[in-house]
Amino acid sequence: MTFQLHPKLREDTHLITTAADCQVLLMDDARFPWLVLVPQVPDITELYELGEQQQQHTYRAILRISEALARHTQADKMNVAALGNQVPQLHIHIIARYRTDAAWPGPVWGVGQVKRYTATELERTKNALVTILPS
Amino acid sequence: MTFQLHPKLREDTHLITTAADCQVLLMDDARFPWLVLVPQVPDITELYELGEQQQQHTYRAILRISEALARHTQADKMNVAALGNQVPQLHIHIIARYRTDAAWPGPVWGVGQVKRYTATELERTKNALVTILPS
Q1: pLDDT per residue over B70-93, tens digit each?
Q2: Chain B partners within 8 Å of A84 (Cβ)
Q3: Cβ–Cβ gap B64/A81 under 8 Å
Q4: What ipTM was predicted for this assembly?
């Protein structure tokens, strides 16, 4: 079986890079600096279902990406979460949060209306992220 | 500096056990099988701030506890999250979710009214958890 990104993730995100056998995606919601990490392993829904080596790679990627995003965005707090209630394919949210953002202090999921990036914003954001993220 | 559990966590949870230098707490909300893992490290708010060894211990504890809780509860999905927007002390939520639960498919935080365990329920739940959790 080969890995294929879940259609809902393909629809809602943009690929930034791959790191440690994970796809690093940008959530298409300009309200929050919001990345989604997807280990390229077919048919996995829980973190503990990853193989030993892939667990290590994934955890390292989570830490490195969240630290890099925190520094780049000067976030007040990072949110890191593997939920998957709506999209079962294992994916980890890494979100930079501000005390002034649209959902603070609650979680971001399901809050208000998604604000898609404009083409210009998307280009600028992707370029900046490629520079700061570990590869 | 010594580690002290944040007062809000002390108020909202019950200690079940310690594993890999982390406190394993039961959230006092009988609507969800909900554990909170707190690395016993003072003054830490982000996963990437843990030392190398503590990172490994914490990640291993997250995986082992979430797998054990998933099996014990026959959950439809596990939710694992480090948020900390309201309680900055680093803590990781490990929550067993059901398609029939009070918040599905949304996240559990801030949904509806907390339903505290009765003394009998608490005793029974703690005893069951001590048996199934890794130490």
Answers
A1: 999 999 999 999 999 999 999 999
A2: 77, 79
A3: no
A4: 0.97
What are the two backbone dihedrals, phi and then psi, of residue B49, each rounded to the nearest 5 degrees?
Answer: -85, -10
Beta-carbon contacts of residue B76 (< 8 Å; ≥ 6 apart): B97, B98, B99
Q: What is the pLDDT of residues A64-93, one digit of tens each?
A: 999 999 999 999 999 999 999 999 999 999
Q: Using the beta-carbon criterion (under 8 Å), do B83 and A88 form an inter-chain contact?
A: no
Q: Are A42 and A88 in contact (CB under 8 A)?
A: no
Domains and CATH numbers, chain B: 7-132 (3.30.428.10)
A106 interaction partners in chain B (CB closer than 8 Å): 85, 109-110
Chain B residue with minimal CA distance to A66? B48
* Interface contact B77-A84, CB threshold 8 A: yes
Interval B26-50: pLDDT, tens: 999 999 999 999 999 999 999 999 9
Q: Looking at beta carbons, which residues of chain A come within 8 Å of B32?
A: none
Of B55, B60, B91, residue with least CA distance to A63: B55
